[in-house]
Amino acid sequence: MKSNDWAIEVIGLKKSYKNVEVLRGVNFTVQKGSTFALLGSNGAGKTTMIKILATLLQPDSGSAKINGDDVTKQPEHIRKEISLTGQSVTADYILTGRENLRMMAKLRHLPDPDKQAEELLRRFDLLDAADRRISTYSGGMCRRLDLAMSLLGNPSVIFLDEPTTGLDPQARIAMWDMIKDLARSGVTVFLTTQYLEEADHLADQIAILHEGHIVATGSPAELKNRLPRGHIELRFDNESTLNQARELFKEFNATADSNNLTLSVITDGSTRQMLRLLTKAAEADIEIAEFAQKLPTLEDVFLAIVTSKKEGSK
Amino acid sequence: MKLIHFLGDTAVMSGRVIRHSTRSIDTIITVIAMPIMVMLLFVYIFGGAMNTGDVSYINYILPGILLFCIASGVAYSSLRINNDLTKGVFERFHSMPIAKASILGGHVVASLVFNVVSLLAIFLVAFGMGFRPQADVLGWVLAIVILLLSILAFTWIAVTFGLLAKSYEGAGVFSYILLLLLFVSSAFAPTDSMPAVIRVFAEYQPMTPLIESIRSLLLGGSADKTTLAAVLWCLAILGIFCASAMRVYKRRMK
Ligand SMILES: Nc1ncnc2c1ncn2[C@@H]1O[C@H](COP(=O)(O)OP(=O)(O)OP(=O)(O)O)[C@@H](O)[C@H]1O
Ligand SMILES: [Mg+2]
What we know:
- The structure holds two protein chains of two kinds.
- By secondary structure, chain A is α/β, with parallel strands linked by helices.
- Chain A is built from eleven helices and 14 strands.
- A six-stranded mixed sheet of chain A has the order 6-7-8-3-9-10, sandwiched between helices. In chain A, strands 2-1-4-5 form a four-stranded antiparallel sheet.
- Chain B has one domain (2-252).
- Magnesium ion is lined by residues 46-47, 87, 161 of chain A.
């Protein structure tokens, strides 16, 4: 693929603050029109990455390009192409939703700010609250307005830093729908998240940022396939059977959940191993109330990668 | 084209900040109502006991009240700038194709506009209370210039502290120092009644020339050494705090 087919191209990017090395050589590319999720736990450097891409922060070394323009060489040009919705809501709480949108439209020098505001209010289901101050909005409404504000001027690359952190499940799903709509409209969406479920749900490509490096990339399906083994969930009728089973399946890395009376057992997914497991239970006269095979989740992928890195470094 | 963008962006930015002031009862009470209350209090309650020679007490005290209003007004700039900085509002603006200078510029213009309106309100009440200036046109122009320069100088102090402060609560503290300086000056009583040490301090700190030049100009005096001192003080403060605000801004936006 030619380099200008990438919406975002990051090569060997490094960034440290005083004595913390946050990014230690990050590489990834984002295809135009796709949705890309940068996954990482607290303090992994997601915001730092987004700030560099949004031209707010200078990298120490390496390069980052947006639509072929270098973030350090053509920041002015890039700012016309992108929009940033930060981790905290930056909509002005003293102003109404409509005023916030109008202000952003004016700052982007767009014609007819009133019409632009009206359209976005409708699209983001905020017309009823349009003339109320943001301070009266719920968390989900604030986030939606923040997102609406970043769409003014039709940016081609949209950065969303943890767009659903702090939202209740219902508001989160509403936000997901908005983001999916956006992705369908052809823009490139770059989002960060701590939730694997969110990345799985929204992204075409995922990159996992851990200790300054991208430790895994791929589509959600590819990442799941990297773990051939799945786990099996066994449910029991009472706690004593659960404890018995836990002892028995020690070698399978069993973890018990005494609230639900379930035991989670990691296998390589082969029928042979499963058969061995069941035979073992039968021989020990352990009654299994329920048996379910769970496909690996992104959570498993993440944990597996992170723990294998840790073990490797020890 | 660049200039037009800068002016347009600054207008939008300052419009935003002015709304913050006009929609906040708190700001209006502190910046406009408080100085008026202080003026009423001083004139009608302590006024009789003050010896200001042949100048009526309202004529004497008005410049001090005007500066009191500015000193408390700029504290709000500081709070709002700190809030914009810590909440990521400046960052969002920086990621947009707008004239950079309009970001702080908007706060400064808003401060100027809001303070001018507040000062007009105080002037009006003062007229009602018997304030009678004797200045000619030149005197008025010079007094207004000194007032505008004071607003700008104090605003840039506010910008610097707003950018420096680690917390919202800390951002407005500097204005207490300005108010303290005001009380230890000839704003409310002539300095000759003060203890010697304080009197010397009062005579050499910037508030005194500001107040005395405005007072003298409004009461019909002509421009003199004090007028020059007032202007120079303002320019010096403006220069120092403009430069330091820019440096702090660059550092904090990294
Ligand atoms: N201005 C700064 N000065 C010093 N250290 C910083 C600065 N900004 C961030 N850091 C540190 O850099 C690391 C990465 O921070 P960053 O905000 O990029 O993480 P994040 O992945 O966005 O975390 P979160 O999920 O909490 O938002 C953290 O350890 C943080 O403490
Ligand atoms: Mg972050």
